[in-house]
Amino acid sequence: MDLATLERVFTVRRHDALTAACGPTLIAAVHQQAPGVRLRLPTEPGSDTPELRRGEVDLESSSTRPTLPGIRCRLIGEDRLVLAVRPGHPLADGPASADRYAAAEHVTVSRRGRLRDPIDDVPAGHGLERRVVAAGLTADTVLQPALHSDLVVSLPDAVTHAARDRLGLLTLPLPVQMPPSRSTWCGTSDSTTTAPTSGCASWSPEPPRHCFDRLLEEVAAGRWGPSLNRRRQ
Length: 233
Description:
By secondary structure, the protein is an alpha/beta fold. It has 2 domains: about 5-80 and about 180-230, Periplasmic binding protein-like II (D-Maltodextrin-Binding Protein, domain 2, 3-Layer(aba) Sandwich); about 80-175, D-Maltodextrin-Binding Protein, domain 2 (3-Layer(aba) Sandwich), CATH 3.40.190.10. The protein is built from 7 helices and 11 strands. The protein has helices spanning about 15-35, 50-55, 100-105, 120-125, 140-145, 160-165, 205-225; strands at about 10-15, 35-40, 60, 70-80, 80-85, 105-110, 130-135, 150-155, 170-175, 180-190, 230. A 6-stranded mixed sheet has the order 2-1-3-10-4-11, covered by helices on one side. The chain has a 5-stranded mixed sheet with strand order 7-6-8-5-9. Helix 1 (about 15-35) packs across helix 7 (about 205-225). The chain is elongated. The two termini are about 25 Å apart.
């Protein structure tokens, strides 16, 4: 399968931060290597949606493992969590201890409007409680109010780096121990079959999707590093 002659529309659904971080590179790579391919990059609505199984979405990024049958996932990257705060924020004055972190007011990213996420379990284990005053749908939604207040945002580093820099926000280390945020590609079993080390002609049953999957992995390598590519979750 020659990507240069492929003509097809691919739908790749990812959350907003990942689209902002990798979307421009993906569009440029596809335009250069597969000029006949067109892309749809809709917003990720949540996990366990049926569009993948129906073939309406070719690949989808996710931070959680779907439970629907027939869907397989592959890890594409791990990202540390950091804090984003305005210049002059009190937390930027000296080490950001767990006590000071929990005492601050927070905004969080949640497609479902949840005011609690797994990060709250860590300070809770030390008798501390984090106060989340708002949950926004996207990273941009919560970064804007942090720029003009003392609100604190905890979010993945690599995929939000450009957005934080664009707004002039400060980045601080997360003062509690948390496992890395994980990003995976999810698709039907046919679209996530392990690929050979080179070439696409032997991929089956659908070589165009496997070649496109390989291209997506190359773009992901530029964000998280090649050592994370093609690891199975």
